[in-house]
Amino acid sequence: MGPEGGGDALLRLEGVSKRYRRSGLLALDDVSIWVGAGERVGLMGPSGSGKSTLACIAAGLLSPNAGHVRFDGVERSGGGRLPRGRSAAVRRAWLGMQMVFQDPEASFIPTMRLGDAVFEGARYLPRFKGADKDRLVREALEAVELPGSYAERFPYELSGGECQRAAIARAVIGRPKLLLCDEATSALDVTVQAKVMALLGRVHRELGTAFLFIGHNPALVGGFCDRIYRIGGGRITEELEACERP
Ligand SMILES: Nc1ncnc2c1ncn2[C@@H]1O[C@H](COP(=O)(O)OP(=O)(O)OP(=O)(O)O)[C@@H](O)[C@H]1O
Ligand SMILES: [Mg+2]
């Protein structure tokens, strides 16, 4: 399918441009991409090409200067806040996208125990109201092969790889429809990287989660994704199906 495909896309960015105000830099220039339900889409490009900017806009953490972002049938406005006073459907759609970043330790609050941090991603969901938090957290940690006792630990008491697995546990505990991974394995050594990739593959198979998977490494991105966008200088330069993997 070409760039016009994906009629009922789960995530769609259309004509998105972003100029950083202070530097005046045009980081994204008329970018249109989409991710179908359950699809694993890669985004690959050199350093500074706009990948993280695009991720932040998709997540609603940054506002675009032009263009539209729709996720799960709901238009996303930037600002990074869970929309208050909106309908439950809007809030649920917002929580249906979760993120895993490059630096796992920095994505945790240093003074919050892991158990509370992992549950943070789920506590707003209606189906977890009155749920047994300790059991849910233990199951989420065990699913990423961390001992349940780690719920009592602080992020700095974990290794980088363990911390990244905890970040994945936090991201998937609420069964998101889309997982946005921005260089999620780049900071890890090769064996830990392989384990985390296997874990993400299992999340995809078992939960049907779609991915927007950002990375540098063609073998890694190509090995995981069904379809890949290349980005350069803030513009999408190419779209590849899995059979044309680089
Ligand atoms: N907050 C900001 N203010 C001004 N310029 C920014 C800001 N964040 C990023 N940029 C610039 O926007 C461009 C795109 O940055 P971005 O972080 O999106 O790139 P990237 O593709 O994720 O790179 P990397 O692979 O190194 O993570 C770069 O030139 C960067 O210097
Ligand atoms: Mg980046």
Automatic annotation (TrEMBL):
Highest rank taxon of the organism: Bacteria
InterPro entries, per database record: AAA+_ATPase, ABC_transp_ATP-bind, ABC_transporter-like_ATP-bd, ABC_transporter-like_CS, P-loop_NTPase
Alphabetized Pfam families for the sequence: ABC_tran
SMART domains: AAA (SM00382)
Matches recorded under SUPFAM superfamilies: P-loop containing nucleoside triphosphate hydrolases
Entry keywords, A to Z: ATP-binding, Nucleotide-binding, Transport
GO MF: ATP binding; ATP hydrolysis activity
ABC transporter domain boundaries: 11-246
Any one GO biological process: transmembrane transport
PANTHER family reported for this sequence: ABC TRANSPORTER, ATP-BINDING PROTEIN, TRANSPORT ATP-BINDING PROTEIN
Protein name, as recorded: ABC transporter domain-containing protein
